[in-house]
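Write out the 3D structure for:
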Amino acid sequence: MPPTTIGVPAIKQRTWSVTTSYTVSQIVSYNLALGASGTNLALVYEGHPSSHALPTFGAVHGIAVMGLVHRAMTDFLPNFQGHNHVHGEHYLKLMRAYPIPQGTNEIRLKTTARVVHVVDRKKGVLVCVDIVTSEEKLGDVVCENDWAGFIMKVPTTGANAEQMERGERTMLHPTPSRRPDKVLSHRTSPEQAALYRAASGDLNPLHIDPKIATAAGFPAPILTGTCTLGIGVIRHVIEAFCAGDVSRFVSVKARLSKPVFAALREEEKTEMSEEVTQEGWRRVLFRMVVDEQARKAEKIVISQGCVELGRVEARP
């Protein structure tokens, strides 16, 4: 029988796990999907001494396990419809560099997810999911994700009235009122959307099929939210403030506010402001916007974002 109310205590007892693997080819494909240059050998050539995956590669493993969580939502959310589930907020913390497979070998990872909160949002609920990814053999944690999904048109009886604060995992950062320190732009394309879809394993047809997008109420297929996040964090923040040195990356937290339509070749603009906290942490506050020429308006696609870059003494 479908549930009629939300039983949060019972939901928190459940976990979902998935084992995934990746090869060096998948790392290269992912890097290219975020716009890596074919001449940046550290990102596209496995023989380079500094070969590495971009930090947001960890979101791929979150996508894999969230497929299981998404399918289970019919068990604990009344009136759940899959097309009413949108990615609302994301947190990613990198614990160590992703291991690079040698030759044709693969790295196997285990990713486990658990629901930590279900919050009443009046027109639906916010489901907050903690995700931990570890090396299967050694058990070492590689990265942690927190995925907050907004599910519309769900009766909220039983949900919590307020979201539990869990430090950097839930903290959003308002955009500073001053002019941004740096601004970088990136124009999306249908090719990038298709490549990211394949590289990330997120095969939701909403990201590729115009008919599905129209049925969902969108003018065109929407770019995967983690792709937009990766562009902002890697193509822009890391390039602008770390000269492309991804080892400076610690974590990112942001709200995915509105979709990007790659088929319309929208241009994403990342506005970034650097600051140092009282504790000595260097970070960049950012937001991403798209100028909609037809409406002569600005669409905010990622808001209240923050990339932690380590302590200030580590600054190059």
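The first helix runs from residue 8 to 11.
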